[in-house]
Structures are given as structure tokens and as C-alpha cells.
């Protein structure tokens, strides 16, 4: 009598998994208890990406400089012998710390360009690292690198030292963005993939918006940097809670390790485990028969014609959305007024945009959503160029439309890219696109500065690039509900099958 309840309890919870063309999802289910748990712990790292990427807004917050020399108003003139910063709003910034004014004024913007350069480098370096050596070691490396280098920034004695370690923080931040996203995409099935991939972007928007809250209560830049960095100490839990991607292990032929991880996940999901080994071995044999498996690299994205077209078109979309998002956000923040409120508004637009992206990608698909969101940005920004001499409220409204379109595009390109690239080069593909996107974010401030030649110039450039992104989207195949491509051969044929069936 005492043995029956445990036996019944052990058998009753088992929930059979629907078999699909995806060998991994066929063992663990589309989205069950483990995938939800994994999402909730990995999503923690996404807050830091918003903090470190956009922390410059308050690290180098505008700090008025005045001249204390009698009868001299210009603090940058040779006649001014004594200057003074207005520290009523911020007690210290990197501008007051190293006197980044007058001839050195552009050094403040340069430090942010260096951050974006770091994200560019980190995206491709850690993308290739993850494809070559595994998702887990790449992810853990950049998580702890972000913590250590971020804390070193707090004690920077010199400007160049500050720039160097902000660059390294950015490299690590890019790595967390790329590898954590790929880890999630490789264990979530197609039915919930768009929901998970898009909701995963919301912590970035929350991180961006919460910067205003941090800065409101912490007015010294060193303590502000410390406050947005120390949270990364939580990442120590990843050592025990983040396993290697079973899909990467499967694709690279490490079946025993892949099967062990799948069995643990299946047990957590209350799914049967007795068929995992024979089914995974059979799936690998079929995969190896189609194409000899090898580790991919970024150059494989360009070896075959159709894969090359898809990579270029996806990269164009990343370039444009980063350019439009960061450029338009800077435009809105530069309109004056309360820096805390303006930053919160610019960041807040991203949250409803991300939520809308969930619905649009689910019912319209990735391709139509991308066309519509780029179109929204194009309309708002071209209107802004045409109405650049109108009242501030009109310009803010047009800029908000453009920014809203970009906030829908941003999570979609992550999702779309994760589904478009095959497993053997998925991290490299997403990393390459993210790297090219950072070129857009580096160029964006320079484009905004073209306002000196006319208020219409910058929004017109952003609008034209949004139209270019729409044109590139036409050549991309729809990925909604499709199994993830595994091999380079899958990557080349994916999308073409639909054309032949049409």
C-alpha cells in the first residue's frame, strides 16, 4: 500500500511531447516549466545591457560651464581665467571630472562612440566564440567580464583609462546580448518562440527607462556607474543554472552531453525520457547523412548565394534600426527640458512597441511586421523632415512615431535573425548583424549633428534608410512556425522550398 502512491505519482505527471521535425523540441516540448524557468533567470542579464549601453546619457550629462572672470561671459574665451561648473543638478560627471569643455567638448561624445565600437567588436567576437567553443563558456565569460570591467570604470583616474574600460564593458555587454539570446532560441519551440524572443527585449527598455531613476537619486557619476554595475554580481548563479545548449552539442556531434542535458530538461518538464537517446541518435545520423557536420564561421554566411542575400538583407535591417533608434532617441533627448523626464519618455516608447511586436509577429509573421515597422519609422521621420520648422510639439510627435516604429523593429530583428541563421552559424550570424547594427549607432550621433546645416537633414537621412530597410526585407523568407535550420545546407535551402511550392 505504501509503494503505490509514489508509483502513481511518478507516472501520472508524464506528458507526452508532440513529435515535430525538430529533434530537440521533440524531446523537451515547445515551452514548458524548464523553458519558463530558464527564461526568467537569463532575462536578468538583459537589464544590464540597457544600463551600460545608454548610461552615457547621465555619465556625461550636460553640465553648464560659466566664467567667473569679471566682464567675461564666454568661458571658452582666452580672456576667461577662471571657470566654474553648475553642479546644482549633477554633483559630478565625466565632463566635470576631466574638464571636457570648449576644445575638448567632443571627447564626451567620443567616449560613447567608443562604447558603441566595443559593442560592435563584442558582437562578432563572442558570436564566433560561441559557435566555436559553445554558448555556455562564451556567456559566462562576458557576464563576469561585464562585472569586473564595470567596477574598474568606477575608479578611473584618467579619461583614457575610463574610455578603455568602458570599451571592455561594451564588448562584454554585446556578448551577453548575443549569446543569451541564442541560448534561449535554441531550447524554445516555434509556437512560443516569437513571444519569448520579443518579451526578452523588454528588460532592455526597462533598463533604459530606469537610468533616469538611478540618476535622479545618484548625482555622482562614479556611484552611478557602481549602481548599474553591481547588479551583475547576481550572474554567479549562472555557473550552476545555465547548461550548454543541447542543440549546439547535438549539431556539433557531442551526442552524449546533449542527451544528458535533454534528459534533465525532460524530467523537469515531466516528459518521457526513455526515447531520447534512440531518437537523438537517429536524428543525428540523418543529419550527418545530408551534410558532413562541421563547425561554422562567419564566412560561411556568404559562401552560398541565397544565404548571402539573406545575411545582407538582415544586416541592412540591423544597421537601420540601430541608426534610427539611437539617432531619434538622441534627437528627442536633445530637445531640452527635464533630462530625467525626456529620457524616461524616449525609453518608455519602446515598451508598448515591444508588446505590440508580440501580437504582430504572431498573427502577421516576421516579414510583414518588419515591413510595417520600417514603414512607420519612414513615415514619421520623413514627416519630421518636412515639418522641421514647425512647433516643438509637432516635431516631438513625428519623432515619436519614428522611434515607435524602431521599437517594434528592434525585437523583431533579434527574433527574425535567430530563426533565419542555421545552428552552426547562428551566433556568428546574429553577432555579425549586431556588429553592423552598431555601425549605425556609431554613425547616428554624427548624423544628428548635421542639424547645423538644416533641421531637416538628419530625419530625412533616417527616413531614407528606413525605406531602404523595407526594400531589403522583401528578399527575406517568412520564418514563423518553421523548424530552425541546423546545417549550412539547411540555411541555403530554407525559404526556397516555399517558393517552389507556391
3D architecture notes:
- The chain has 502 residues and is an all-alpha fold.
- It has one domain: Growth Hormone, Chain: A (Up-down Bundle), CATH 1.20.1250.
- The chain has helices at 4-11, 25-28, 33-42, 44-54, 56-59, 94-98, 106-133, 135-153, 159-185, 190-199, 202-217, 221-229, 238-241, 246-251, 255-268, 276-290, 305-333, 339-348, 350-363, 366-386, 392-420, 426-448, 457-473, 488-493, 496-501; strands at 65-67, 83-85.
- It has a two-stranded antiparallel sheet with strand order 1-2.
- Helix 4 (44-54) crosses helix 11 and helix 9 packs across helix 22 (426-448).
- The longest helix is centred in the middle third of the chain and has 29 residues, at 305-333.
- Keywords: Membrane, Transmembrane, Transmembrane helix.
- The chain crosses the membrane at residues 36-59, 107-126, 138-161, 167-188, 195-217, 223-241, 309-327, 339-359, 394-417, 429-447, 453-476.
- Pfam families: Sugar_tr.
- Residues 38-481 form the Major facilitator superfamily (MFS) profile domain.
Amino acid at each position: 500500500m505504501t509503494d503505490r502512491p509514489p508509483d502513481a505519482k511518478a507516472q501520472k505527471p508524464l506528458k507526452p511531447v508532440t513529435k515535430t521535425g525538430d529533434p530537440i523540441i521533440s524531446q523537451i516540448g515547445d515551452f514548458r516549466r524548464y523553458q519558463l524557468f530558464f527564461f526568467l533567470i537569463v532575462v536578468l542579464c538583459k537589464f544590464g545591457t540597457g544600463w551600460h549601453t545608454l548610461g552615457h546619457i547621465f555619465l556625461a550629462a550636460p553640465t553648464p560651464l560659466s566664467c567667473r572672470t569679471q566682464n567675461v561671459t564666454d568661458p571658452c574665451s582666452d580672456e576667461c581665467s577662471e571657470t566654474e561648473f553648475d553642479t546644482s543638478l549633477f554633483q559630478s560627471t565625466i565632463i566635470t571630472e576631466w574638464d571636457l569643455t570648449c576644445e575638448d567638448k567632443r571627447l564626451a561624445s567620443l567616449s560613447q562612440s567608443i562604447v558603441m565600437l566595443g559593442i560592435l567588436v563584442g558582437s562578432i567576437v563572442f558570436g564566433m566564440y560561441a559557435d566555436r567553443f559553445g554558448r555556455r563558456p562564451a556567456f559566462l565569460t562576458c557576464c563576469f567580464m561585464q562585472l569586473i570591467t564595470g567596477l574598474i570604470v568606477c575608479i578611473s583616474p584618467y579619461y583614457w583609462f575610463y574610455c578603455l574600460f568602458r570599451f571592455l564593458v561594451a564588448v562584454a555587454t554585446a556578448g551577453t546580448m548575443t549569446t543569451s539570446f541564442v541560448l534561449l532560441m535554441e531550447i524554445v519551440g516555434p509556437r512560443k518562440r516569437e513571444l519569448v524572443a520579443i518579451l526578452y527585449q523588454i528588460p532592455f527598455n526597462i533598463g533604459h527607462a530606469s537610468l533616469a531613476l538611478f540618476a535622479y537619486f545618484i548625482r555622482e557619476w562614479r556611484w552611478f556607474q557602481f549602481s548599474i554595475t553591481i547588479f551583475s554580481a547576481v550572474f554567479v548563479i549562472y555557473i550552476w543554472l545555465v547548461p550548454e545548449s543541447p542543440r549546439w552539442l547535438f549539431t556539433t556531434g557531442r551526442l552524449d552531453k546533449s542527451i544528458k542535458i535533454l534528459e534533465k530538461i525532460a524530467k523537469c518538464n515531466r516528459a518521457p525520457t526513455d526515447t531520447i537517446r534512440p531518437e537523438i541518435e537517429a536524428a543525428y545520423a540523418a543529419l550527418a547523412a545530408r551534410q558532413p557536420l562541421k563547425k561554422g564561421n562567419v564566412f560561411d554566411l556568404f559562401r552560398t548565394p541565397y544565404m548571402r542575400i539573406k545575411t545582407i538583407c538582415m544586416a541592412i535591417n540591423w544597421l537601420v534600426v540601430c541608426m534610427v533608434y539611437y539617432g531619434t532617441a538622441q534627437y528627442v533627448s536633445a530637445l531640452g527640458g527635464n533630462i530625467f523626464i525626456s529620457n524616461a519618455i524616449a525609453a518608455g516608447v519602446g515598451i508598448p512597441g515591444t508588446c505590440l511586436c508580440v501580437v504582430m509577429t504572431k498573427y502577421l509573421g516576421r516579414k510583414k511586421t518588419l515591413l510595417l515597422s520600417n514603414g512607420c519609422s519612414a513615415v514619421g521621420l520623413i514627416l519630421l523632415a518636412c515639418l522641421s520648422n514647425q512647433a516643438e510639439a509637432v516635431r516631438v510627435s513625428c519623432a515619436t512615431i519614428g522611434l515607435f516604429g524602431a521599437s517594434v523593429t528592434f525585437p523583431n530583428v533579434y527574433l527574425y535573425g535567430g530563426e533565419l541563421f542555421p545552428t552552426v552559424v547562428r551566433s556568428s550570424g546574429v553577432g555579425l548583424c549586431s556588429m553592423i547594427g552598431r555601425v549605425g549607432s556609431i554613425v547616428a550621433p554624427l548624423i544628428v549633428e548635421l542639424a547645423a546645416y538644416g533641421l531637416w537633414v538628419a530625419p530625412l537621412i533616417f527616413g531614407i534608410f528606413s525605406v531602404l530597410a523595407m526594400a531589403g526585407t522583401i528578399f527575406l523568407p517568412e520564418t514563423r512556425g518553421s523548424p530552425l535550420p541546423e546545417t549550412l545546407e539547411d540555411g541555403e535551402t530554407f525559404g526556397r522550398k516555399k517558393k517552389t511550392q507556391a
